[in-house]
Design brief:
Helix content is 50%, strand content 8%. It has helices at residues 19-30, 50-56, 58-65, 75-78, 128-134, 151-164, 167-184, 187-200, 212-218, 225-239, 253-269, 277-286, 294-307, 310-313, 320-334, 364-377, 381-395, 402-416, 429-442, 445-459, 467-476, and strands at 12-14, 35-38, 41-43, 70-71, 86-91, 95-99, 102-108, 117-120, 123-125, 352-353, 356-357. α6 packs across α7, α10 (225-239) packs parallel to α16 and α16 packs antiparallel against α17 (381-395).
Length: 496
């Protein structure tokens, strides 16, 4: 018998009516090489839970158990089980099959058509137009248990087609849905779809739309819905927290300017515009760029001229349009010596950081305006500051200078409330960038908030009217060290 066995057993094996095959499975089970994880379902994986194994192999299970079945309704648009483990299949009869970690809903309905494509093995999937029609069927079940997506989710998927493809593709989808609705006798569903697409294309009143992304698109200011969801997550993490009040000790003009110098120095250094401290002092003291590094010098000078001006740094956005105007004005000052970077203008092409794509340039204005709503609802200065910093960093509205702009807008919030501003020293760069990445990629707001709290605690001790003493204190905290050379120290500053 062993000569006939595969050299390596599949993770999932299926019971069968074939007596010889059944005997093989029984022998394997007796030898402890496989185990039963569900009715007529076995696994050679003896460690993971049945739930994990079944969820991982749902495609093979459907293809083997229900040949010629059609992945349909919400499953045809999501291409995976729902978070609750539900899959919806159009088949020759109606039945619900519960397996560990997976519930298969067989729904009696029209068989596959010539337009429905092979999905996996002998499993098919509703073509896109059919899937949208199926998702517009009326259902009384709660959204999480429903075979259909909510109208909001449908709108978001239609908006994504318009965003990623184009208007022509959305019209082609509608034309195909019109023909499919006649073939499958779904006139009511097509009428709903037609209205949604027309509203998205602004050829029908947009009041029927429920999705923020769809409404924004219809009004001509599309938004990055995934980033708006991320901003909402950060808002929720900030809204109910209590934060320490680190009041600004740099109340004298000279002291505020001293802090502004190091704020400008570190903010540029972290972006790759690197000078020795003495070189940066010369640029600021003379208000003259170094001859060999004109553009870099202007970056430091432009940043300093804003962050050292308490009056300018006390200005915070009062509404969404003012927010955009502040961003553009301050950017025009910081990047004044780099005309190729369009100072004062939002980006006209997309930008990336490694594999991370920032907000599409067509969605910058709409996304910033929508993000402002959460900012306006926050109350504590620290919460408003770190929220603002993340929004600008995440949207990346300009071709260059986005990190500096993000930190500038953050510190304006703190100055306006007479709180200490925040410096991100060189030694803390990896902590800062790592926390930003975790929030971007994993939605981990807590790590980001804790990191910024530590930076704020450190920065609140940077004060005094003697710039040299301030520099000495920063050195004692390892502020100028590279992240692989030391760790940030938070120490009491006795200098006035």
């Amino acid at each position: 018998m062993e000569k006939n066995l595969p050299r390596r057993l599949h993770e999932v094996l299926f019971g069968t009516a074939d007596k010889a095959e059944s005997k093989k499975l029984a022998n394997l089970q007796k030898q402890g090489l496989i185990r039963k994880i569900a009715p007529r379902l076995y696994s050679s994986n003896l460690n993971d839970s049945p739930k994990e194994i079944i969820r991982r192999n749902w495609l093979q299970i459907l293809s083997k158990r229900y040949p010629e079945a059609l992945l349909s309704h919400r499953s045809a648009l999501e291409f995976k089980p729902t978070p609750t483990g539900d899959l919806f299949i159009t088949y020759s009869y109606t039945k619900k099959i519960k397996l560990p970690g997976l519930t298969i809903h067989l729904i009696k309905g029209p068989k596959k058509t010539e337009n429905d494509a092979v999905f996996f093995g002998n499993l098919f999937v509703s073509h896109e137009a059919r899937a949208f029609l199926e998702n517009l069927l009326q259902t009384r079940k709660p959204e999480k248990l429903s075979k259909t997506l909510s109208q909001k989710e449908i709108e978001e998927k239609l908006e994504l087609i318009l965003k990623i493809r184009d208007e022509k593709s959305l019209n082609q989808l509608r034309d195909k849905a019109r023909l499919t609705s006649k073939e499958l006798k779904m006139p009511k569903e097509f009428k709903k779809l037609d209205k949604l697409i027309s509203a998205l294309l602004s050829t029908h009143p947009s009041k029927i739309l429920t999705s923020d992304a769809a409404k924004a698109r219809a009004f001509g200011e599309p938004i990055d819905i995934n980033r708006i969801k991320l901003f909402e997550k950060l808002y929720n993490a900030l809204a109910d927290k209590l934060f320490s009040d680190y009041m600004d000790k740099n109340t004298a003009p000279k002291s505020y300017r001293n802090f502004g110098f190091f704020e400008s120095y570190f903010s540029n250094y972290i972006e790759g515009t690197r000078f020795e401290v003495e070189e940066a002092k010369q640029i600021i003291d003379t208000q003259t760029p170094l001859p060999t590094r004109d553009e870099d010098s202007h970056d430091v000078l432009g940043t300093y001229n804003i962050v050292s001006n308490r009056k300018e740094m006390s200005v915070c956005p009062t509404d969404a349009n003012h927010f955009l105007d502040l961003l553009k004005y301050r950017h025009s000052v910081i990047l004044s010596a780099r005309p190729s970077k369009n100072p004062g203008l939002f980006k006209d092409k997309n930008n990336f950081a490694g594999s991370t794509a920032f907000t599409d340039f067509k969605e910058v204005k709409g996304t910033l305006k929508k993000a402002f709503d959460y900012y306006a609802a926050l109350r504590h200065p620290f919460a408003k500051a770190v929220y603002m910093m993340f929004v600008v960093s995440e949207v990346h509205p300009f071709l260059d200078g986005n990190g500096r702009m993000a930190r500038l807008l953050m510190n304006a919030e703190l100055t306006a409330a007479n709180h200490s501003k925040i410096i991100i020293p060189t030694v803390f760069r990896d902590d800062y960038m790592g926390a930003l990445r975790k929030l971007t990629r994993q939605g981990d707001a807590e790590t980001y908030i804790r990191m910024m709290q530590r930076a704020h605690m450190f920065s609140a001790n940077i004060y005094g009217q003697n710039a040299d003493a301030m520099e000495t204190y920063l050195k004692s905290c390892n502020a100028f060290k590279e992240p692989d050379e030391a760790r940030l120290k938070i120490m009491v500053n006795d200098n006035d």
